[in-house]
């Protein structure tokens, strides 16, 4: 089956950016395409087609993850096997609870120093609003693993990291999934993946993203950038949804919710890239698509010189517009999540999206001025997010397009 439902082009005249809604045959396989200007005039969904765009290939992962979660929800769960001798008078439960506490501490530390301040909100939600009893936030173990993975290529020891080291990290990931954790943080993740239908694929893909960061510092077009964004950030959405859970009342298809989760990761990473243009360029990295830069009459040198010109402003307008489209796509899925997850996800979405407003407020100077969302704005986002989180799954199907 092949076909196209709709294709529109938008963005500033100088930098048009296309967005498509591409049909994939039957009602249960429709999806949104926000990738680039490639018009799928006629495409085959065959998995073996080598000419597929990154978006199509990533969508296959989404379908697979959605299918797996449906399957595993029905079947058995892996059970944790802590093979290592346990010292002291602890039960496995005590150790795990300490392990999750440690994960919480790590995330809190990052939340202090980094932009993504979802952790304190998650604490508030879990401790005061959703469960009066203190309960474990299982996504913390995933977040710590993501941060540790990112630290391998971005942290203080990054210069010593080789592809071999990443291979060892991947081997260790397999151990985690097989119930053989190496340390406390791994033990928490082992526990999480034994309790929830989390698949190893997005984790492996994130490591692939780190491999890419070791060998690649330029992206020819948005298709290449999209794949990178999937690896390092879209994967986070796919890892988190099986733990966060889908609202029991949701009538949306699992695929469409995973697609929204993927979109949130991509939107966040695009925003990250737009905010860090100057900083990344000084480290020898230009993530912005080379063909789009050239089309706008810009080059790497313009980025290194770092002068905000009208050409740059216009180029940035297009890039910001595309990132916002991914946020819009993500929005469609948040209401379908379990009630406990909606507030933190809305909060992180609203907070992160404001970084794009901050870039505009800086008159597009993302070379030397860091776009940042002030404390008051952050604070005001919380009740706004709370209000949105009150809205649960839509009763009709028009919003999410497909049925389970
Ligand atoms: C239906 C629907 C919308 C569901 C929501 C799904 C969901 C929870 C999506 C999460 C999306 C998300 C937070 C993605 C992270 C994107 C990101 C910022 C990735 C960064 C990668 C590397 O970037 P870079 O090196 O360029 O940047 P730095 O200079 O290093 O900052 C990351 C750093 C990867 C590491 C990812 C994280 C630390 C986030 C992990 C977070 C979770 C697992 C918890 C998510 C929970 C909430 C409530 C958002
Ligand atoms: Mn990083």
Automatic annotation (TrEMBL):
InterPro entries documented for this protein: Isoprenoid_synthase_dom_sf, Squ/phyt_synthse, Squalene/phytoene_synthase_CS, Trans_IPPS_bact-type, Trans_IPPS_HH
Single annotated GO MF: 15-cis-phytoene synthase activity
Keyword hit for Ribosomal protein: no
Domain of life assignment: Eukaryota
Record organism: Vigna mungo (Black gram)
Enzyme kind, highest EC tier: transferase
Record-given protein name: 15-cis-phytoene synthase
Family (UniProt): Belongs to the phytoene/squalene synthase family.
Record field: catalytic activity: 2 (2E,6E,10E)-geranylgeranyl diphosphate = 15-cis-phytoene + 2 diphosphate
Pathway named in the protein's UniProt entry: Carotenoid biosynthesis; phytoene biosynthesis; all-trans-phytoene from geranylgeranyl diphosphate: step 1/1
Pfam families for the chain: SQS_PSY
GO cellular component: plastid
Annotated GO biological process: carotenoid biosynthetic process
Record-listed E.C. numbers: 2.5.1.32
């Amino acid at each position: 089956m092949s076909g196209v439902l709709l294709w529109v082009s938008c963005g500033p005249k100088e930098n048009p950016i296309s967005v498509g809604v591409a049909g994939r045959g039957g009602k249960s396989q429709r999806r949104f395409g926000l990738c680039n200007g490639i018009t799928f005039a006629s495409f085959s969904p065959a998995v073996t087609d080598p000419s597929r765009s990154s978006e199509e290939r990533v969508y296959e992962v989404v379908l697979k993850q959605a299918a797996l979660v449906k399957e595993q929800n029905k079947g058995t769960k892996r059970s944790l096997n802590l093979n290592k001798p346990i010292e002291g008078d602890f039960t496995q439960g005590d150790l795990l609870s300490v392990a999750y506490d440690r994960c919480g501490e790590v995330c809190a530390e990052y939340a202090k120093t980094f932009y993504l301040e979802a952790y304190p909100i998650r604490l508030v939600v879990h401790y005061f609003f959703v469960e009066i009893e203190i309960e474990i936030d299982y996504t913390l173990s995933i977040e710590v693993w993501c941060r540790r993975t990112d630290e391998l290529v971005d942290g203080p020891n990054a210069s010593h990291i080789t592809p071999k080291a990443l291979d060892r990290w991947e081997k260790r990931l397999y151990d985690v999934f097989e119930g053989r954790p190496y340390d406390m943080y791994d033990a928490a993740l082992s526990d999480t993946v034994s309790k929830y239908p989390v698949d190893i694929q997005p984790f492996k893909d994130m490591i692939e993203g780190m491999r890419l960061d070791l060998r690649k510092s330029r992206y020819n077009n948005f298709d290449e950038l999209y794949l990178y964004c999937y690896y390092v950030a879209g994967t986070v959405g796919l890892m988190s949804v099986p733990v966060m859970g889908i609202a029991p009342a949701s009538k949306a298809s699992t695929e469409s919710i995973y697609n929204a989760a993927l979109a949130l990761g991509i939107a966040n990473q695009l925003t990250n890239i737009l905010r860090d243009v100057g900083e990344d360029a000084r480290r020898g990295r230009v993530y912005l698509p080379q063909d789009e830069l050239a089309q706008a009459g810009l080059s790497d040198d313009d980025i290194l010189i770092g002068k905000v010109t009208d050409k740059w402003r216009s180029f940035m307008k297009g890039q910001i517009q595309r990132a916002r489209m991914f946020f819009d796509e993500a929005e469609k899925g948040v209401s379908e999540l379990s009630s406990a997850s909606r507030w933190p996800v809305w909060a992180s979405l609203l907070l992160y999206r404001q970084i794009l407003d901050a870039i505009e407020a800086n008159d597009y100077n993302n070379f030397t001025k860091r776009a940042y969302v002030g404390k008051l704005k952050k604070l005001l986002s919380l009740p706004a997010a709370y209000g949105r989180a009150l809205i649960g799954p839509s009763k009709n199907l028009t919003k999410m397009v497909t049925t389970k």
